């Protein structure tokens, strides 16, 4: 009988908490979903931490049959592949019985096209991960459990192969995976948010992003080992304090990367809803702040340095976390370090041009970085505006004003030196370059350094980078980056082009989710413009199977669908103030919700058959206040709006560069009917 350490299985039917969720990690997570409903069918999370394979793949054609509890390895069947049906990760265990000495190999992979006798790459070096070996010395039975340090963070397929004497037969049974991610949660399906729309593909994509973020939330003692091991892998690196922390990927790198968190944290908040991992990730970055005020590009044990952009992403991540959680204690604890970090990067602003001069040139993957790079300057603008918010929140109005003044001056410099009015987009740098990057232009709209006219121009220009399966990034030629595309889809929504944003979500994320060689449950780090899983293969990646198939930086549609399609967003601490501004695109209905420390936020809408009316319901905690911008769907300037039976006539109004009917809504439950007045 195999041993599972101190792991204790939590039984949903039993109704009580276990002592431990993952090994010695005590359960602190929720027991039930905040919004149970029919949409739970889209949730990929397993209903237990003990997961069995679903199918057995065998033969050269990998034909599949249901897993019935055991497989046989012999000279006639030297290899079988166990398919878990979706991305999983953790510790594999099994029982075996053989009629003589034998050697059984074990290998794991995320993508079906890399199934083989060696695992896909994750160690970060130039050597393959290889496999683990089970040596059976004599006939009889026994059990095997993968050592904890050999935890496999992310995979879908487990290959078992027979490499011992050909006369030996081995029966392998009770193959089981102990899920290692989301370590403090007894119920992996207990999401604090939900989403459903009239489009099945979008529903699946929302939950694939959410599930990816769960697989990226890991025990703090299971990071990739540094120095990197050769010819194998090791996941026993210490990532930070606490029990749980959010990292960049399930398989790899399994480290804190603040840039990735720019997408991962909002999507995690609006879906899974667990922020303890975010606080621990941010805290470790401040704990390792350098004497000059700079912050690492990545957390321990890697502790990579020299990135101005990722330095700033930690500061933006602090804003996101404090906004969502209203954790002013965290802010106060790190406030001196935060200010020092702001001064470090702002000290690089050139007085003559008013632009940031980038000297920490490491970045997400783009080919070039440095001088007056537009992406970095736009990120600095966001750093300053969010810094102003945090300074006001902590009670330092003078500093808040200073940060605002700096942001205003930088905004002028960005539009003076980096905007190409003849082309209608931002250049990559304050030079004569003809590179108009996806990252800077997407972030410019998202971070509000543009006018409505610029937004529309940028949105149109970005589409020119598209092919049938996504947006090819000019600053990373030949590659499609769902990380940067996560910002792009938001820019299209903010430009008022919801149908365009939904198109990109379907053609990029929908393409991968339906790919026969993918995980069918998570979002991929990146891929080439021809659709091959060889992201950055021309940029020194150790092997094309190194690509992560469960990468949180690609989960942008999850927050975007909640914020822009359902239309519900937090604008004040923990939702004290909020925004409701749905965009219908080509959809007929949508609904969703999320949870903060104040309670549940929920909204739903449906478009009427006539095309000039729609209804929605919204429920938010009492004592909160929302600003609603209700769509103008027919071009009529006025609408009769009935709120809880009270009728009013509202004219269209432009708010935050979008046009609609502006209404204030107090916390509580409300039912609203919007009827646009034909000819008005």
TrEMBL record:
Residues in Alpha-L-rhamnosidase C-terminal domain copies: 567-633
Top-rank lineage group of the source organism: Eukaryota
Gene3D superfamilies linked: 1.50.10.10, Maltose phosphorylase, domain 3 (2.60.420.10)
Signal peptide (from-to): 1-18
Domain Alpha-L-rhamnosidase six-hairpin glycosidase: 234-466
A Pfam entry, by short name: Bac_rhamnosid6H
UniProt entry tagged with the keyword Signal: yes
Keywords: Signal
GO biological process terms, semicolon-separated: carbohydrate metabolic process
Gene Ontology molecular-function annotations: catalytic activity
Family matches, as PANTHER family: ALPHA-RHAMNOSIDASE, C, PUTATIVE (AFU_ORTHOLOGUE AFUA_3G02880)-RELATED
The protein's name: Uncharacterized protein
Lineage, top ranks: Eukaryota, Fungi, Dikarya, Ascomycota, Pezizomycotina
